[in-house]
């Protein structure tokens, strides 16, 4: 049975996107676009005035941000099930801080996984940039958790 949870809002801690984190992500994904990895060129040529985080880096931090927004101590297994939609609304400059706002849209029971009971949750996520009007990213995220 599916339940609607429109009123649940969680807010993560702030997280700084350092140039080192951006470059580590670039190395892991082999995405070395200069707007992410070349601070001098980005200052001179980029419309952003400096390097910016990869959109997929920002998105990949959802699990980390969620872990600071809610108590996961009863969780035995968590699974990223997917995304229904994602928009990268505004760039995140190197050195900026972000945090996420999570609103639970729905939750439904899943068949047991061995001895574990589970639920699938659909979250509306807004990742805000500190001191900026536009968010960095908005997404609808599906997670599965088993207890």
Layout of helices and strands, plus pairs?
Layout: E1 2-4, E2 9-11, E3 15-16, H1 19-29, H2 34-37, H3 39-45, H4 55-60, H5 62-69, E4 77-88, E5 97-113, E6 116-129, E7 137-146
Antiparallel strand pairs: 1-5, 2-5, 3-5, 4-7, 5-6, 6-7
Describe the protein's architecture and organization:
With 147 residues, the chain is an alpha+beta fold. The chain is 24% helix and 41% strand. The protein has 5 helices and 7 strands. Strands 1, 2, 3, 4, 5, 6 and 7 form a 7-stranded antiparallel β-sheet that branches. The longest helix is centred in the N-terminal third of the chain and has 11 residues. The protein is elongated and about 55 Å long.
Search tags:
about 150 residues, alpha+beta, seven-stranded antiparallel sheet, 5 helices, 7 strands
Report the biggest beta sheet as strand number plus sense, adding barrel if it closes. 7 strands, antiparallel
Give the termini separation.
18 Å
Gross morphology is elongated
The proportion of strand residues reads 35-45%
Percent range of helical residues: 10-25%
Structural class: alpha+beta
- Radius of gyration over C-alpha positions, nearest whole angstrom: 17 Å
Uncertain segments = none
Mean pLDDT: 93
Tally of contiguous helical segments: 5
In total, the number of strands is 7
* Order of helical and strand elements: EEEHHHHHEEEE
